Amino acid sequence: MEEKMKVKLTVGVVVTGSEALKSEKGANIYEYMVDKISSLGVEVVGFDKPISQGAGVSKQASLFFSKNNVDLLLVIEGTWTYDNLLIDVTKFLNCPIIFWATPETFNVPFPQTCTLVGITQTCGTLVKMDKKIKVILDDIYREEGFNKFKNYIHILSIIKKLQFTNIGLIGGSRCPGMLDTSFHELELRKQIGPEVIYVPSSDLLSEINSITDAQAEKVQKELIPDDQIENVEKDIMLQSMKIYIATKKLVEDYELDAVGYKCWPDLRHANICSPCFTLSKLSDEGIPCACEGDTMGAVSMYILQLLTGRNVYLGDFLKADTKTNEAQYFHCGAASSNLAKDKKEIIYRKNAQYSDYDWIDGLIVDFPLKPGRITFARIGEIKSKYRMVVYTGEATETDMFVRGNPARVKLDSSAEDVVNGLIQNGSGHHQIAVHGDILDNLKLFCEFLNLDLAVL
Question: What is the pTM of this model?
Fold first, then answer.
């Protein structure tokens, strides 16, 4: 299989520099910043002439950046210049524009560069032209300011990567009785970017049937410590390993980045056990998986993983205490093992949840969610418009009040407000969460992608 295409962000760089002010300072800053940004693994296209009086240079810059299809334009405010020139430069761009100005010191008789005058004048004008503007006010040589710029690049790189993302829907549709996991496929491509790849259940079953017991036993020995297995019959263990091997091959064959998995009723009808272990292990390996054919759950998990570099939790909102604002969540046992406080305490056992459904109990990964700050975020759609719904809390220690992957969270908002907010925003029943407080980055993500954001 060919290596998957690597997506790079293209960053344009230009500096303003008026002949009437200290334009040579802007030139020095330009050279420094081009070298600095190049170290971030992005493609840098710099326009090396300062934007100053006269429209000739600004129109050249306009064509230059348009031709190079920049995903982000950095305007270094070396000195004040005419705002109409920056309208020229950005005329054909539909990407975010970051203005970076070094504040001048107090107690100087007259500003040497007038950078603050320049950005308030120019940026306000460009906002009226419907341009997406962000401003950094910091010394260009300070790491704190550059870290803020790096974060913008990080988020925009994720947005660009989403345009080339494949979300697999194994089983080809949602599970019955779960209309809340429905989605608008064309609007998903248009508004966010991912393509949904439909993988029929017949492909999965064919792959499962092609795997030998010997292959399955080998994988079991490689992946699961014997002393953490509890009461799992050999045929269940082997079948669970075969599902994992088969699904991993489909992920590779279809070049999938994340998976929505229609686990039932197809596998039940084929006399195949529940695939919870497979979803857990693939998530360990960087392929987030949402069960019950939840495509937008998979999209949300993938975005949170890209933003944080951490594994993501999926669970049902099971109980809420409106007096203490605590909530309990759970799912069947398909969470990444990296979400356990101590991997040595994980138990690999049969899924007892489905005994009443006439379905073979598959292998699950049994542990509670580890404690820590946590952010819930899910993307969904109402009337063809996608939005993100976010709330936060503190995951706390919990006992195994149910088999699978229980979680207990002290919500930052009232439990009643969270429940009502989820309902009013049409959020699905699967709650998607990642450790850490990433609200600020989610706000930037939604702003850059033009998504509505509801913070509960």
Answer: 0.94
